[in-house]
Write a structure and sequence with these properties.
Helix 2 links the parallel strand 2 and strand 3. Helix 6 crosses helix 10. The protein is α/β, with parallel strands linked by helices. The longest helix has 24 residues. The two termini are 36 Å apart. 45% of the residues lie in helices and 18% in strands.
Length: 318
Amino acid sequence: MVKISFLMAAHNEEKIIINALENLSHLPCDSYEVILGLDGCSDRTLEIVQSYKKKQPKIFHYYELNERKGKPAVINKIFPHAKGDIIILHDADWIFRVRSKESMDEFLSWFNDPQLGGVVESYPIEWNTRLLQETKDWAYLASAYGTYHWLTFMKKKFSITKDGIRYVDPASKNLPFLCNVFRRELYAFNETLADDFERSLDILQRGYDLRILDYPKQPRMIAGYTYQTFKDLTKQKTRTARAREQVFAKYDLHVTFFNFYLPLLLYASFSSLKSLRLRNIIATHLWITFTLYGATKQLFTFEKKDTKESWLLRAQRQ
C-alpha cells in the first residue's frame, strides 16, 4: 500500500490553516500522514494544530521550530520524520481537493511507473470556475487568469505526449514547472525561494519523468482563500522574480527577459484577447503589469536580499 506524507510549514496561520487541516482530516485515502513544522508561531496556530492531533493522533504530527528562514528551511527540518512513499508539499493556505476515492487511487497508481519522479500542476491554485464568475476581487482574478495563461504557455511549449499522457519535455530544463508531488527518495534539500521550480529541475536532471496534471478535476491543490489584495500580489510577484533569479543562477540557466518573460507575457496578452471575455482580458493584463513591476523592482532594489529576508514577502491569507 502506497503511503503519502503531507508536509506543511506554518507561521501564524490561525486565520486560514483550519481549512487545510479540516480537509486533510477527511481524505478518501487508505494511508497518509500530515506533518507540520510550526515556525515560531505567536498566534493560535499551535492550539488549532493540537486540536487535530488530539482527534487524529495517527494522522497529524507537528514539530515546533523557530527557523524564520522561510518554507524550504522548515520543510528540510521536518522531512526526516516523513514515512510516506510519496511526498506532497502543502501550503497552509491550500486545500488538497480529491473528488472521490477512485480518483485518488488512480492518482497514486501513476507512481506504479518506476520512471515517474513526480507530478506537476497545470492549473492555478485559484482556478475555481464558479468563483471566477462570482468574485469581484480583481487581485484574485489577476492571479487566476494570469497564472492560467502562464501554465498553458508552458504546456504548449515545453511538454511532450507519450501513450496519451502529457509529460514535461526533458529538453525544457531552462524553463521549470512547479513540482510539489514526488517520490520520497527524490527529495533534495532546497534553499532558494523557488523550491518547487528547483525540485522539477532536479528530478529531470536525475533522469526521471514529470507527469503533468492535465485536468482540473484530478486530485490537486486549490486555494483555501477566496480573495487577495493588490499589496500581496505585489509582494508575490517581487518574490517570484527573485525566486526565478536564484534558480536560474544555481543551475546556470541562460534565461533572459527576451527568451522567457517577453514570449510568456505576449502569449498571455493575446490569449486573453482571443477569449473575448472582459474579465479575462482585464485580469490578465493586471497580472502582466504586476509581473513586470515585480521583475523591475527585484532587478533594481532587491538583488542583495537573501532567501530568509525575501521570504518575509509572503502573502498573508485570510
